[in-house]
Every structure is written in structure tokens, then in C-alpha cells.
């Protein structure tokens, strides 16, 4: 799948290793300087984790092991992504977030 970044967007890549059993907290959070125009969230591990968008408890979902989710331009304005790694037990989970930030 190819996601085209907008010409007026600054691309950024964020990588996190979520400690096994960790929940939503500061070290499992990414806050963007501006709202995203596109956002790709990758789970690079063999364990599931939970994601929360914009610090909103109503905007949570499970990101399955070795999977990704893409939010295209116009889908949703995302200002932060938080992760909860409690589903994995003691296994660390590696995630990667690629965004285009509005200028």
C-alpha cells in the first residue's frame, strides 16, 4: 500500500518500543507538533497492542500483531497516538508511526 504525502506536509517517522505489560503513559505516547494530514501506524511485533488517538477513550482500537492501519487525508485529524501494551503480557512490542504533518 502506498500513501502519498501532501506537498504541504512535513513527513516524520516515530519509533517506539513498548515495554511488556505497559499501559497508556507518557513513554508510550507520541504528540505531534501539528495535526496530521496522513498517518500510518505499524505494529512490527508478534503481539497485539491497543492504540488510542487524540487522547480520546472513545477512539481506541487493537492493532493486531504485524499489521498496520492508515488514515488518509480527510479521514481524521490526529494530534497524538498513545499505546497500551498490556495485551502482550511480558513481551515488548515495537511500533512505528509515519505521518505527514500539516504546515
Structure characterization notes:
The strands form two sheets. A four-stranded antiparallel beta sheet has the order 1-8-3-6, with no helix packed on it. It is built from no helices and eight strands. With 103 residues, the chain is mostly beta strands. It starts with 8 loop residues before the first strand and ends with a strand. The radius of gyration is 13 Å and the shape is globular. Helices cover 0% and strands 48% of the residues. It has strands spanning 9-18, 29-31, 36-43, 49-53, 60-63, 68-71, 80-84, 93-102.
Helix residue percentage = under 10%
Number of helices: 0
Order of helices and strands: EEEEEEEE
* CATH homologous superfamily heading: Jelly Rolls
Radius of gyration: 13 Å
CATH topology-level name = Jelly Rolls
Q: What is the domain total for the residues?
A: 1
- Note the beta-strand portion: over 45%
CATH architecture: Sandwich
N→C terminal distance: 25 Å
**What is the molecular shape?**
globular
**Total beta strand runs:** 8
- Runs with pLDDT <50, length 5+? none
The structural class is: mainly beta
- Look at the structure and give the mean pLDDT: 89
Keywords:
103 residues; mainly beta; Jelly Rolls; four-stranded antiparallel β-sheet; 8 strands; globular
